[in-house]
Specification:
The protein contains four helices and five strands, in the order H-E-E-H-E-H-E-E-H. By secondary structure, the protein is an alpha+beta fold. The structure holds tetrahydrodeoxyuridine (THU). Tetrahydrodeoxyuridine binds next to helix 2.
Length: 130
């Protein structure tokens, strides 16, 4: 497993594709699968606002749709001084499909934190409760 630089660079590049005409808040994500493939995502907004998809969920759904089922890390990039952490909806999906993923938060210039999903989402509702 390479350092996080390549993953963060992929998230920065994906951010350039963000469709953020309403918030103008562009986010990029890059998900590393168990076999080392990098699958990227960006946030996609639309006129309903509420149907917006965050960069993290786009990356995860893209990866699932391409047959990947096991993931190691995800990098999330926004142009903010303080890191932009995943929203609650994304945490639910990241936990469901990625388990205790490593979450790397970065801005355009630096990596601002490494976290584990179990710390970001400590009392999950998941299939173990069904
Ligand atoms: N957003 C993401 O894509 N990921 C995050 O981690 C936080 C928020 C997006 C959703 C929306 O398009 C914009 O940022 C402002 O909330």
């Amino acid at each position: 497993m390479a350092g996080s630089e390549a993953l963060v660079a992929a998230a920065r590049a994906a951010r350039d594709h963000a469709v953020a005409d309403y918030s103008h808040f562009k986010v990029g994500a890059a998900l590393e699968t168990a076999d080392g493939t990098i699958v990227t995502g960006c946030n996609i907004e639309n006129a309903t606002y509420g149907l917006t998809l965050c960069a993290e969920r786009v990356a995860i759904f893209k990866a699932l749709s391409e047959g990947h089922r096991s993931f190691r890390r995800i990098a999330v990039v926004a142009d903010t001084e303080e890191p932009t952490p995943p929203c609650g909806a994304c945490r639910q999906i990241m936990w469901e499909f990625g388990g205790n993923l490593e979450v790397i938060l970065a801005n355009l210039h630096r990596v601002a934190g490494h976290h584990q999903m179990r710390d970001l989402f400590p009392l999950p509702f998941d299939k173990g409760l069904l």
